[in-house]
Amino acid sequence: MGGHTPCRGENGPGGDRRSLLEVRRIMWGREPELAVLRQFVTGLPDHGGVLVVRGGAGIGKSALLTGIGEEATGRGIETLTLEGVQAEWRLPFAAAHTLLGMLGVGQPPAVGANLGHYQFQLSLVLLDALTTRSAHRPLLILVDDAQWLDTPSWEALAFVGRRLATDPVALILAMRDGPETEVRLAQMSVAELQVEPLSEEHSLALLDESAPHLEPRLRARILAEAAGNPLALGELAAAVTRAGETGLPPSSLPLTTRLERTFGSSIAEMPVPTRALLLVAALDDGDRLGEIMAAATLVAGVPLTVEDVEPAIAARLVDVNDSFQIRFRHPLVRSAIRQEATFTQRQQAHTALARVTSDPERAVRHRAAATVGIDERVADEVDQLAARLGQRGAAGAAAPLWARAAQLTGDVRRRASLLLRALEMTLEVADHEGAAQLLRAIVPGDLSVEDQMVLHLLREVADGGWSGSARLPTHIAAAEGLHRSGHPDCALDVLFRVALRGYFSNLDQELRDEWLALLDRLDLPALTPRLVATLGVIAPVERGAVVVERLAALLERPDLSGIDLTELAAGATAVGALGAATRLAAEAVALNRQQGNLISLTWALTYQAWNAVALGDASLARAAAAEADALAAETGQRNYRVPNMLHHGHAEALRGNSDTARAMADECERALLSNGAHSMLALVRVIRGVAALADGRYTEAHDELDAIFDPSSASYHPYVRFSVIAHLAEAGAHCDRHEQVAARIRELEPIDAAGPSPLLRVTLRCARALLTPDDQSEATLRATLGTDFTAWPFERARLQLAYGTRLRRRQPAAARPMLRAAADTFDALGARPWADRAQRELRASGETRRRPADGIDQLTPQELQVSRLVAQGLSNREIASRLFLSPRTVSTHLYRIYPKLGVSSRSALAAIMAGVI
175 has which bridge partners? Predict the structure, then answer.
């Protein structure tokens, strides 16, 4: 971030922002708030967490932080203090870099594979630094004016804060009430302490100490207008002392405006050089007095010295510390200075700062702020700066810069393109209100064909709706235009971005053929990962065999990126190549974890959960879906919430948690109906059908699942049928719906004959065996089990259960190995209802089996993840790195896992989990 000091940071409580006498005075009447803070800090070292202290400007939040910081230091808790500054909130990573410096840790490199994932790399480094620093001594981080932290630093602190519950690190954030605070806290579930105005009794005591000789009438007016605000009591009393009653602003104004007016009157009394210096300091995003004096000299036209800052210090407007850093005593002082200045004065100050600052990036910002009208050179500089920030992962900082660059260019096409880039970045940080404003500003006709296509896609993302196949012809036409203009890679990007929409839109054959023909005309290498993935998703039947063949070749390549692996996992899952999909998703999850790419990791986990439920692996599916859902919320990917809940609900149905599964199905159904994504209702039917099947309500299960096969039903889906035909057959066999199920099997046989889907081939084979009449069933089941089910454990166990059940009636002893194997597999997969059935049949055969690892079902999704990684031989630190946790959190998970599974060591836990993973 260049050579500037990016954010105010100090070791120790409170620094020099307020004198101890002032803090003690403002602490009048704050014992209830202090008690809450003491209770929170007392949790150290047993546990940590995050607490937000919020309230109006001047209400005493800073004093509370200083007070609790003093007490914590007295108790042996290391205390670090950080301060957000409004002028710096667009400097990406400023606060996070400052905090890392205070912790004695360097910044992660923004190079190589991590260039686009710097945000998450920095979050991980910060988490590790905090937990390492607190290993031997509890740590308290106090952040004042946190609403003004730059967005990437805020997101890093939020990321860390969600992971501090078991570590001796406490984070207290003081935030001023207002829209910035509301937006940030809406995305972060955290305890809050609201600081209310002082009581009349405490207000009176504070005023008497600040201004003991006021006449009763003025005293009463100040008490009424301050309304319990400690800062207002002091400043309004000072104004009366200086200028009498005329020094009080009109009471009709809001309190913050009155305080700004009060500070403004103090500023107006300053000498001209001091006012110039204060204006430059208010507009600067640094705090070095030397730089500020150099710029103020240019503004004032005469040389300035340190003596020119003395009147502002005497008036209690600013402080200067021993390092020659200038600080405003309250943010309202800075606000008042800006409001008092004319446009010309602000422009002159920005121009001067651009000339004197040694940081090229800050110079660009100031030049942009000083420029009036069109300036293509400055537009270029701002555009390039925004691009660099976007590469670093600072989308929140890049977006307003691209919007500013758009204002500086006279080229209407470029302006629209720059606004489009700003829109992309704004959506990436889930700022949907900002996105709506940018959408209104973009003139579609000014965009190129490529950018118009991107705009269509982003508009749908911003709207949060579902257009199904309605807009697909437009996207295909845009891709065709890109192909004709010599940009086949860009055309492929377009088609891939809408491929999943095509998968879930029940496309008519004409549109699908048009899509495929265009993909063929792109003439890209056959093993281009994104091309293979796109073919798999949009044409699982027509190109399924080709995709399976190409996947086999791609699996041998060592050079695939995390995004490549993730996209290929999507294509493999779509065509039913679940063996390849499982491997690709696992490798994608591992590589994206290693690279710290939480965006792509969310997608990879979603696909891992998707193919896990298709394979009947409830344990893996619920762990992957739960983590994907948490990461989607953390990274603002709201479109992934429903898919992850659908997979999680399916997993809960397989586990026999029917009430939970049905509740998730109901919630997903409401969401899908509200945004028009009706074709995804097939997955809601799957949850309900599997839950009914698990409960033994076979007629209900049949009817729910059969709706997926009915083209007249809103739940019809041509490809979801592949994964549920065996479930349908199991239900039909138990409720005498043999003919109906047989008809559904016949519908799928022509597709299977073409050989495109490994999933369909296996589920049809299983379905036919389950429907075989009783007099032929044993032989058919035995023969079917003779085929290769290595990659399909649930289906093999289902057949073993069916065969063992029939065999047990004639030859109990001969049935036991089959039933035992089925029970073991279902237990390992977490499919408890099927395991229970196998257990009952085994008991009826005369064998008592101790059920292994009953406690696995009690593990939370994250505990299950930790257990799986322990079984792989990873240390606590390695597990923490993979799951973005602290080592202490992993230890806490193990402390809870051991009694649930009845073990007391990692080796015993690994032995139990060996049968699960």
Answer: 54
Task: For residue 500, count CB atoms less than 10 angstroms from its CB and return exposed for 0-12, middle for 13-18, buried for 19 or more.
Answer: middle
Residue 468 has pLDDT above 50, yes or no: yes
CA distance 177 to 629: 29
Separation in Å, CA 377 to CA 91, 420, 556, 683: 22, 20, 48, 53
The string over 519-534, giving b where at least 16 C-beta atoms fall within 10 Å of a residue's C-beta and e elsewhere, is beebeeeeebbbbbbb
Q: Report helix angle 562-575 to 544-554, nearest 10.
A: 150
For 433, other C-beta atoms within 10 Å of its C-beta total 9
Count of Cβ atoms closer than 10 Å to residue 843 Cβ:
12
Pairing of strands 139-144, 326-328: unpaired
Tell me the average pLDDT across 345-350: 94
Instruction: Give the model confidence (pLDDT) of 250-262 as tens digits.
Output: 554 556 676 777 7
Q: What is the pLDDT of residue 20?
A: 47
Task: Assign 242 a pLDDT band (cuts: 50, 70, 90).
Answer: low
Q: Is 165 helix (H, G, I), strand (E, B) or coil?
A: coil
Q: What is the DSSP letter of 325?
A: B
CATH of 858-913, one of 3.30.70.2750, 1.10.10.10, 2.60.120.340, 3.30.70.360: 1.10.10.10
Longest dimension (CA), the chain: 108
Interior/surface letters 708-745, b for 16+ CB within 10 angstroms, e for the rest = bbeeeeebbbbbbbbbbbbbbbbbbbbbebeeebeebb
Dihedral angle sign, alpha carbons of residues 293, 294, 296, 300: positive
Q: What is the DSSP letter of 148?
A: G
SS3 174: strand
Q: Provide the sign of the torsion angle of the four alpha carbons 881, 884, 889, 895, taken in this order.
A: negative
pLDDT in tens, 292-316: 999 999 999 999 999 999 999 888 7
* Model confidence, pTM: 0.76
Q: How far apart are CA 595 and CA 585, in angstroms?
A: 15
The CATH topology of domain 8-194 is: Rossmann fold (3.40.50)
Whether the CA torsion 373, 374, 378, 383 is positive or negative: it is positive
Helical segments of 371-431, H only: 376-391, 395-408, 412-428
